[in-house]
Amino acid sequence: MFGRQWFGPGSQLALDDQALLFEKILRKREFSKAIEVANLRIQNNEAIGYKGYWLRQRSRAIRLQGRSINRSVITLAFDGFWNGFNSHNNEILNLLKHCAYLIGSRIEIDSEDPDILIFSCFGDVSFNKYKNSTRILYLGENVRPDYSQSDYSLSFDISEYCGRNIYLPLWLLRSSKYAINTQDYKMYNSTELETPRLVNNAGNTVAYIGNNSTPNRIEAINELAKNGIIVDCFGSQTRPVTDKIETLQNYQYSLCFENTYTPGYVTEKLIDSFIGGTRPIYWGGAPHSIFNLSEHFVCDPYQDMKTNIKDFLVWKQYNSGKYLPQLLKTGAFEKTESYLTLKLSKIMMDLF
């Protein structure tokens, strides 16, 4: 479903003017009017894809109309997530519970007939099972939202897509406020990222921890080697690690490259580098409005890697203090979280 990075015909049905108008009416709780709009669209659309979209929207409006106004429970289901994903214990669920709490509601899991379906791009989704649910697409990868099957999305995209998308970076979910107890990552307190950190007392060797040998990573490793700097490589293709943070604590520098480049797309790599006490050599689309990137080394995506590594070697000469500058700008975590929770809570409050 998400293999291509361009929008195919019918992939953005929810961004159509009539679909946006329908959603606006729905969120005003004018359900009878919304059903009338859907009926008109069903009658006027010959194309199967469009007709199917509006049939689903009508069913969704009828379901919402049938809910009790005073009902305080919002039911939820997850589908299409990665192997090992626990529908009853995960970061997204914790976030949604927090948002529901803000509006005086609570979340319960109902895999049979939920009010909201949270689905993702990691597996097949049983859409026929959730014809009446409001659907929210969660994208934990650098791919664009598809609005043929979803009503809203949570993604790395900084664009709001006409009010349909909410920016949800992975690093926020891994804060102690939403994180779950797992060996896959180390949770952190949000204030840690807004506070200078003692850098590891180590040599010039650079650590690289990753599972994908992308061309720019290989090129960076080779360019560093040409300049006398060794890169110790870890990951599934080289040396597997059981504790990423513990491994990083043996190094002063880390190669910190995202898989791909898109503004707003920033995963756990930059956060882990900072928590691990290393100076990141960063390549990626972390937003300058959130991250304190001017005090860390960031590769220029418009320069070749040879030039970037030369720039790093110069930067390295003038940045050798005992402390890492704060990674997030002061107040950036709270601002990002407030934006996210306000948008999600408003959807819940309007619809349910």
Briefly summarize what is shown.
With 352 residues, the chain is α/β, with parallel strands linked by helices. The protein is 34% helix and 15% strand. Helix 1 packs antiparallel against helix 2, helix 2 runs antiparallel to helix 3 and helix 6 crosses helix 9.
- Output the structural class: alpha/beta
Q: What is the CATH homologous superfamily assignment of the largest domain?
A: Glycosyl transferase family 10, N-terminal domain
- The CATH topology of the largest domain, please? Rossmann fold
What is the mean predicted local confidence, pLDDT?
A: 92
Strand order of the largest sheet: 2-1-3-4-5-6
Give the count of helical stretches: 10
> Looking at the structure, what is the overall shape?
elongated
Low-confidence parts: none
Strand content: 5-15%
Helix content: 25-40%
For the record, the CATH class of the largest domain is: Alpha Beta
The main sheet comes to:
6 strands, parallel
Q: What count of domains describes the coordinates?
A: 2
Straight-line distance between termini = 29 Å
Radius of gyration: 23 Å
Task: Give the strand tally.
Answer: 13
Helix-strand pattern: HHHEHEEEEEHEEHEHEHEEHEH
CATH architecture call of the largest domain: 3-Layer(aba) Sandwich
